[in-house]
């Protein structure tokens, strides 16, 4: 009988220990302005940017990794890379690429302890694999919201206007609206 009580007690302790280790997923963190302070780094990108061009009636999806540095509280400068795929109505599929420096500003207005609104502008060059490879001047203006799920990771949604114009003689400008969902990792700088 003593052995059974001892085994039952050990099993009960094991079950209660196991139950204490189960946690619910974290979906927000109170960070205030800590991640966007001067000297911190930002690394990540949009993992699924979707867009539609008004001129050529094409649909595109892009992967846009980026990295930046906070030059002052709430302002980051950095570099983004665009890697994309487009389907053109009545045409061939196009693989695209680009490199665009960016500036991102986090608004103090409307900020909560778990998220921030931001505006981002980028300017650079893009290219594509259609016919003769050529480069294009490109810029974008986007607004977004960063929701912090941990002290260093934020989920983001952005929407905005994008424009590009090829350097070919008979090129037509491409412009349209786009939206993206992604994530950023905010790394603290040296103190």
Q: Can you tell me about this structure?
A:
- The chain has about 190 residues and is mostly beta strands.
- Helix content is about 10%, strand content about 60%.
- The protein has one helix at about 1-20, and strands at about 40-55, 60-70, 75-90, 95-105, 115-130, 135-150, 155-165, 175-185.
- Strands 1-2-3-4-5-6-7-8 form an eight-stranded antiparallel beta barrel.
- Strand 1 (about 40-55) and strand 2 (about 60-70) form a beta hairpin.
- The radius of gyration is 23 Å and the shape is extended.
What is the average per-residue confidence, as pLDDT, rounded to a whole number?
81
The CA-CA distance between the termini, in Å, is 62 Å
Strand content: over 45%
Encode the helix/strand succession as letters: HEEEEEEEE
Largest sheet composition? 8 strands, antiparallel, barrel
Which range best describes the helical content: under 10%, 10-25%, 25-40%, 40-55%, 55-70% or over 70%? 10-25%
Radius of gyration: 23 Å
Classification by helices and strands: mainly beta
Shape: extended
- The count of β-strands is 8
**Treating each run of at least 4 consecutive H or I residues as one helix, how many helices?**
1
Please mark out the parts with pLDDT under 50 across 5 or more consecutive residues, or reply none.
none
């Amino acid at each position: 009988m003593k052995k059974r009580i001892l085994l039952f007690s050990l099993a009960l302790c094991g079950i209660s220990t196991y139950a204490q280790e189960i946690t619910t997923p974290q979906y927000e963190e109170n960070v205030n302005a800590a991640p966007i302070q001067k000297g911190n780094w930002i690394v990540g990108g949009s993992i699924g940017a979707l867009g539609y061009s008004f001129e050529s009636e094409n649909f595109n999806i892009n992967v846009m990794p980026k990295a930046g540095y906070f030059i002052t509280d709430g302002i980051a400068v950095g570099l983004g890379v665009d890697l994309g795929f487009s389907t053109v109505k009545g045409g061939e599929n196009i693989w695209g690429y680009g490199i665009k420096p960016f500036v991102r500003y986090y608004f103090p207005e409307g900020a909560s302890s778990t998220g921030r609104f931001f505006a981002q502008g980028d300017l650079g060059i893009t290219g594509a694999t259609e016919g003769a490879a050529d480069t294009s001047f490109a810029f974008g203006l986007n607004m977004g919201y960063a929701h912090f799920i941990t002290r260093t990771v934020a989920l983001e949604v952005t929407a905005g206007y994008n424009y590009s114009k090829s350097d070919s003689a008979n090129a037509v400008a491409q412009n349209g609206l786009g939206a993206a969902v992604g994530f950023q990792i905010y790394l603290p700088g040296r103190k």
